[in-house]
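Annotated sample (chain length 204).
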Amino acid sequence: MHTAALFGCCSACKGLLEAGCRPNDQDEDGPTALILAAEDGYDSIVNLLLAAGASVKIVSSTGVRALSIAAGNGHAEAVRLLLSHGADKNFVMEERVPMLLTAIYRGHRDVVNLPIESGINLESRWKSWTPLYLAAVGDDITTVNEWLEKDVDIHCPGPDGMTILHHAIRHGRHELINHLLDMGFDVNACMKPQMPDNWRFRLD
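Output written by the structure step:
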């Protein structure tokens, strides 16, 4: 089953399930067939496994679930399927690998919007990074503007000690600066005097 899911062989997966293969078995490295299919965006296999009772809650030995690996790799339809089957939208902010932040960093806006629309906490943090701050650092003005309309703390500093206004000024993001000022951003908000050693965002 794992080999069929890994290589996207939907007909093989269907045959194995009909023959009694258990959808939630984990291989030696920890992932289930659902995690493997979600990782590569094999939507038909993801749908097939979910229909067969595959669990969206199983965590691999590397600390990821099917939803988070699909989100991080930009597979919007797989994310939608997993969310519709009860995947925990907030779990993507709690793993060792921050897949929601990875999706934001890689610019997967269609993927990012799915858990956001489902009500994920935009003020969740991973090593002081929030989704809003990372989107600002990535110069995703459209996403930032959309999220600023939600109930989020716009003055919350990032891991480098700067607020998003500090960042926008530093990098000449005039559209974002004007939008923040229009929203009543406190221009006297101070940045932290020092940066922590691990402030830079890394995917590894």
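Annotation: The mean pLDDT is 85.
Annotation: The chain has two domains: 1-120, 122-204.
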